[in-house]
What we know:
Layout: H1 4-17, H2 21-43, H3 46-63, H4 74-106, H5 109-114, H6 117-135, H7 139-149, H8 155-162, H9 166-186
Amino acid sequence: MITPELDYDLDLLKGVAAGDRLKFEAFVERMRKLVTSVIYRVLNDPQDTEDVAQEVFTQVWNKANLFVASRGKPTTWVATLARNRAIDRLRSKQRRARLMEDFTTANDPKAMEMTDSSDLVSLRERGTHVRNAVMKLSPQQREAIEMAYFAGLTQSEIATRLAQPLGTVKARIRRGLGKLRETVTED
């Protein structure tokens, strides 16, 4: 059953898909509380919530034409976009924190003193092996993986920076990680 609210949301979203900025502004105002509350529940950080909300509304502007009314309501669609984008941000922050911790530990003289020399040799050999495996990747796969794991970017952010479709970026990362897994476990 289509309620007046649902009908209004559908009309706004159709306008957004057609490039109507006024309808987009009205849609943003209408969905702002929903989007920010969904994101905040995942991130629990006001600054990140604000940043991710802006990314979500940019995504709405760019992808409103992909919304299919028979699959669900605009509120459900926007809430799903917000939740997924918030989870991407959370994972990105966690990856960055792990990498920083590993980097700090690897460069900590005290940690090096407490490490057995055979462990250091093994660690260096493994690092060389992984570096060689990374160099065997295609330049596109290597770039996407470096952006994801070392720059801490989400796949959507990588797609935007590379001006490539999101599916292409996801495939490059997935295939690249598969090659790395094969190469590293072979030896």
